[in-house]
Amino acid sequence: QVQLVESGGGLVQPGGSLRLSCAASGFTFSNYWMYWVRQAPGKGLEWVSAINTGVDSTYYADSVKGRFTISRDNAKNTLYLQMNSLKSEDTAVYYCGNLYYWGQGTQVTVSS
Q: What stretch of H or E contains 34?
């Protein structure tokens, strides 16, 4: 069955960095655009980033543009999100998905 497992979240100070990973299985990973979304405490889901199948086009929400980088390794069926210059407002549960399936999420907390 389809599985998407996020990892790499944690507690980081403002200005710090984290790298999230999303291990995918149960579907042909290379055939799907992949996405990161997040949900901050008490707020709705926010789209963060997307990457196409060919790994040559990436898209970002204005709130993270210039600070986050999405990437994928189709040989490893893994999606990544490199997050730099983290801010308190980046605190959220981060989910990866292909629009049809989503993982369980990984918590990112940015606090001093």
A: strand 34-39
State the pLDDT confidence band at 54, using cuts at 50, 70 and 90: confident
For 57-93, what is each residue's pLDDT tens digit? 999 999 999 999 999 999 999 999 999 999 999 999 9
Nearest to 73 by CA among 42, 13, 30: 30
Compute the C-alpha angle 102/23/27, nearest 5°.
65
Burial 65-98 (b: 16+ CB within 10 A, else e): eeebbbebebeebbbbbebeebeeebbbbbbbbb
